Amino acid sequence: MKIKSEVAADVRKICASYANEPSPLMMVLSAIQKKYGYIPLEVQEVVSQEMNIPVAEIYGVVTFYGFFSLNPKGKYVVNVCLGTACYVKNSQTLLDKVCEVLEVKPGETTEDGLFTVDAVRCIGACALAPAMMINGQVYPRLTPAQIPEIIDSYRKKEEA
Amino acid sequence: MNTIQVKIEGRLYDVDASLSILEAARSVGYSIPSLCYWNGGHNSLASCRVCLVEVASAQGSRLVASCVYPVAWVGADKGFEIKISSPKAIEARRTSVELLLSNHSKDCQTCVKNGNCELLNVAKITGAKDNRFPGEKSKATYDDCAPGIVRDTSKCILCGRCVERCKEAQGIGILGFEARGFETFVGPAANRSFATSPCIQCGQCVNVCPTGALSEKREIDLVDEAFRQGKYVIVQTAPAVRAALAEEFGNKIGTVNATGRMVAALHRLGFYRVFDTNFGADLTIMEEATELLHRMKGEGVLPQITSCSPGWINFAEYFYPEILPHVSTCKSPHEMEGAIIKSYFAKTHNIDPKDIFVVSVMPCTAKKGEAKRPQNAANGGLPDVDAVLTTRELALMIKRSGILFNELPEEEFDQDLLGEYSGAGVIFGVTGGVMEAALRTAYHALTGKEYGPIDFKEVRGLESIKEASLDIDGTIVKVAVASGMKDAKKLLDEVKAGTSPYAFIEIMGCPGGCINGGGQPFVKPTLQPEEGANVLKEYRQKRANILYTIDEKMTLRQSHNNKDIIALYENFLGSPCSELAEELLHTSYVSNREKFPNLK
């Protein structure tokens, strides 16, 4: 698949802007992830050529760190915390409920492109366990019963 | 050398202070089981944990991965003792192997590495009990879409040897560690097939894989089927095969020139004719030297680059399509020989070429793909070569038929139109050999006389890049030789930039040339302790020496003096690079860059 030439050019520009860093790959990938929301294989190929790093190695980095994504994320990213503190407080049931309500599996995006569900390891809100985060907004001490309402509030926001 | 005193199993030894514990122990007579460790520690990810030893001191004891742990940190002066055979160390190593086995497919009897498996070997040594940790296994990928190499991640132990080999030795980096945790796999980006990745099929990864996760794609069945159909099954063998085949039958590396016994075995396997690809090599030299002289006269671009190595051709088509006009249009020797068998030989013997099945025994996995290229089908679309077996596959066929290789008499290749071959053809199997063979003939073509010393020693040796300036009767010819794609890049970048000072460049895909090809017998220090601790440093030179010795002992040393070659031109082809020669013996290349539309 061919990506748009202006995207390729932009990716090359991002690579060039970190050229003088001692270990620039993470910075380049972070910049692309932040700007475009995901880093597909085709973009990794461009990065590979620009930085002279095998694409297999770049793909390895992208698939190792949860921060990077291979696929476009939805407008709202639902991060359910499965870190130790949340997990022992039954956060798995939160994740199951979110998936049930949105009809997707963890890591997937709803068909309308609105929501992506991710299971994450610790969002640093252990005292508020079990917790969930949507686009940076933390929802503390949740029970599965609260999930439909929260999801609904985002849907309503979209409709408005 | 700085030495340090270490205590191993209660005894004191003086060892090289720069070594790891594993290497230091090896130097005083201990072989600690290991898997991911390879090639003097070039790959030491310490990922397999099979080499664990106990390091004890007054402060207590702990387990360390001996392949990476510096012996300098555990000197006897600091009160340390290294324990290899303590119950704690032995149990730890066994558990490591059991954990590796817990995620392994364990179908050992059907595995291509049966007999060569390092995992099975450490399981035996450590006393691993099968199925101690039953449970879920990682999702596996089986990829046999590419012509030469099969990847089966159900057997991968994530040691990273292939990753290191592809990136560091070949400078390509097709393979990487992908994903994370339980889902981690070794493979091309996005778990694509080798067929859709820019893999050059050189097989270097296969040679270092400790298990059956990477292997050649076997074609023995194709040969069996051709016999069943009653075809004229004709076999040819590449020069490098004879330098290593005997290793498959328990002979030490570099001790046996297998030519005569190999021919005897092929006769016993029932092949209609047994030919030497060296005839094809001599033919290649005639064509390639003529092409070079044409280019030097201004017909075509310089430098000319050799085209015998299909791994290198794949590399050029993927990564350096701009320089394809520099690559000689000559087919590789076995393809030329196949094309001549199906034309000249078939015609002379009044055989329908459709009834001929040509088998090439090659030290190479990439040759399998080369034989399937549509450009290598000269006789009305019939492939020049129908099946390619690696040296290892031939050994399997010989064993399968109950032929006792070491007891065979020495027999001669069949003298039937394509029988004679020169020493120049033999040395094709080692880096610098094609160059030297071509120079012997080019010298004759330019001066009308033979080069007195015969040998062009300037281009010999296993260094990854060699260059020489030769004075051929007043004409200065600058040449260069590279093997292994990583170092070849330096020469290729010059060609691409138009600054290459050379007239002729030889490139071989594998480091050291075909003697170290991806289809050659495995060199596994832990499975071949009789070869000594330095075997990985020495085996290439030992194999190369066999070929140079064969060349030296021959009376026919130059391709252009091969009588069967002369007769082939007189009776059939006309002259080198004639119209018929172009049709049968030359090929073309295509850029593979369009498969990567996002690259500049």
Descriptive account of the structure:
The complex is a heterodimer of chains A (160) and B (600). By secondary structure, chain A is α+β, with helices and mostly antiparallel strands. Chain A has two domains: 5-64; 76-159, Glutaredoxin. Chain A is built from seven helices and four strands, in the order ααααβααβββα. The model of chain A has no long low-confidence stretch (mean pLDDT 92). Helices cover 33% and strands 14% of the residues of chain B. Chain B is built from 19 helices and 18 strands. In chain B, the strands form six sheets. Chain B has a four-stranded parallel beta sheet with strand order 12-11-14-15, with helices on both faces. In chain B, strands 13-18-17-16 form a four-stranded mixed beta sheet, with helices on both faces. In chain B, strand 3 (52-57) and strand 4 (60-65) form a beta hairpin. The longest helix of chain B has 20 residues, at 277-296. Chain B is globular, with a radius of gyration of 25 Å.
According to CATH, the homologous superfamily of the largest domain in chain A is Glutaredoxin
What Rg of chain A, in angstroms, do the CA atoms define? 18 Å
Beta strand count of chain B: 18
**Percent of sequence in beta strands of chain B:** 5-15%
Low-confidence stretches of chain A: none
CATH topology of the largest domain in chain B: Fe-only Hydrogenase (Larger Subunit), Chain L, domain 3
